[in-house]
Amino acid sequence: CFNILPPLPTTDDPLGQIFTKAFSFNPDPMRISAITPAILGLIASVNSYSVEYSTETGYFLQDESSTDPSTFDYTTVNFGLINRIYPADHHLKHAHELTQWERFYHQVQKLNKDSPSHVEYKVLFLGRHGEGYHNAAESYYGTPAWNCYWAELDGNSTATWKDAALTPAGINQALKAHTFWQKQITDQRIHTPDAYFVSPLTRTLQTANYTFTDLSLPAHAAPFNPLVKELFREGISIHTCDHRRSKTYIYNLFPEWRIEKGFSEEDELWNGVTGRLVLRRMYGVFFTNEAKKDDAFISITSHSGEISSILRVLGHRTFSLSTGAVIPVLVRAEKKGRDSKPVSSTSVAWEVSPHCTAPPVTSVSACVCPSSAVPVTTPLVTDL
């Protein structure tokens, strides 16, 4: 869903508080909320430690300023992996017999092997969900009308977009990703993800399922057994597409999948009145026991806003993903020394957002409510 970022929080140490336990080496990261692009950075205070985070460029076309995100198709260019020689190639007796992805995996292993204990390298495959009914509705009504009226409804007479499911086009996008992954496994002998994480919203659950289920994985590959993480979801707005369904619903949909400990039965973050941007907060799981140190390749199926935020934290150039697209990133994390300041959490709610109680009369570039429908700040719908 389309979200507007909250106001800048006032803190004595915004970086230290906002990035508390981000990229944490502690196995139980806390929840923190409220960030803006102005205070996204590369330093995270972590349980009295700080972790410096960066993208290792020169490996993927998506790293290059000359690559246009609006026309880029990851399935036509080997996930964007640049055809190049790696320093680690010199340690391979038969490097010329290996594929680009096999040599790249060896390069990542060599980086980790040669690094001190406080430095780790991981490759994140950040996948956006396929087209959902909320995406289709926003395209149909236009963004202004969507934001000020339609997004606050559960749906219309033909579609439901509360915790939106995939459209047929979205399913095809996920199946396209499935086909591409299988081709990479067969032709490139790519190292498949060692760990899988997924947002709890229906569209991401479905995307991960269509993408990874029934792949012919290499021998000894980690099975597709994703962990559903609450805080990999999209930033919380008043839009109903951000309202997740119950834990029981998720379990019944995919009973073999794992759901993180402490996952609430009902959605405790969405209320339909105020929005909250829960801190891009789950980065720490990549460097905790939820993603083991040897787990070099990690898949995350999430949302456009969440992925954009992750890329900003990593210092990656802005790279918008179309629905169903995937971007790989080679990440370096370095744990720094102890911080003498105690770490605390912070949470800043969005301001209440007025919206129309009837379809707007003007929506080309702005939302104008009809004179008979005074804007309100109360929910337009109640839970069904």
UniProtKB/TrEMBL annotation:
The lineage of its organism: Eukaryota, Fungi, Dikarya, Ascomycota, Pezizomycotina. It comes from the Eukaryota. This is Phosphoglycerate mutase. SUPFAM superfamilies: Phosphoglycerate mutase-like (SSF53254). One of its GO terms (molecular function) is phosphatase activity. GO terms for cellular component: cytoplasm. InterPro entries: His_Pase_superF_clade-1, His_PPase_superfam, PGM_Phosphatase.
